[in-house]
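Researcher: I'm preparing a figure for a lab meeting and need a structural model of a single chain. I don't have an experimental structure, so a prediction will have to do for now. The sequence is pasted below. Please return the structure as tokens so I can convert it later.
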Amino acid sequence: MARTQRPETEARTKRPSPKSFVKPALRTSPPSWFDDGPAPEPHHRRLGFRTVWISDTHLGTKGCNAEMLLDFLQSIECETLFLVGDIIDGWQLRKGWYWPARHNDIVRCILKQARNGTRVIYVPGNHDEAFRDYVGLDFGGVELLAETIHVTADGRRLLILHGDQFDGVVMYAKWLAFLGDHAYTLLLKGNVVVNRVRRMFNLPYWSLAAHLKKKVKNAVAFISDFEEVVARAAAERGADGVVCGHIHSAEIRQFGDVTYYNDGDWVESCTALVEHGDGRMEIIDWAAHKRAATLDQIAQTAKAACLHVPA
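Model: Understood. Here is the structure written out token by token.
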């Protein structure tokens, strides 16, 4: 297959040397967006990966599952962390300011990882398109790139981009995209209410938005078409695979010689894409992971209680 075009910048795979951490002095003024002060640390062993991809966190919106995202970021360590667009939702922030403390903690956690040796690469999407004006620059150890190539441990070349450039609605009917965004925002607000009620009954997280999306035939057809178009573009650029976000649908699919990866989102499914040390790729469903961990803890507690019951 002819390789007609390659992105100009290729992501390095060698881990940078760790940097020392100096605890900043205490202060009384509120922290800024990009304050790299210390974030809360987890009380469990971290999961180690070679590479992690997350996208569509939509910080600055009520739909962002900030608690779960922060828990995930504090539970992992990796050589390279890719932020694959729509990390900060500029569309919503222009409508009205919403930035709770947990969203600031997430930014601080990412900056702390960058400072401690993780290579952090930010590929802006359509909701944070303002950052595309700063592609090529470095902010607090976070590199901004329009797109890039990542070489896996087993030698495969993966094209990394957000994916909105392959969405005809976003590219050619932006007014319709903003209208759809408004409807989607209302749906996510409903998602928050549903899960608030579920927590009252001690039920696990469940995404109303993701459930409805799977039930709508047109949405399913759009996702399938999008995946095929992105995979074809990766093949034309001579890549072995492509990693993107944008459509909030985590997936691993094979299209001919090209593997399509979508890392999902953190407003519906709470998913990430990870690369293990041997190059094996996997989608992590953090909500399912937390449910399994909770059930395991309950089982261990029950087992311990049974062992201590007197005969």
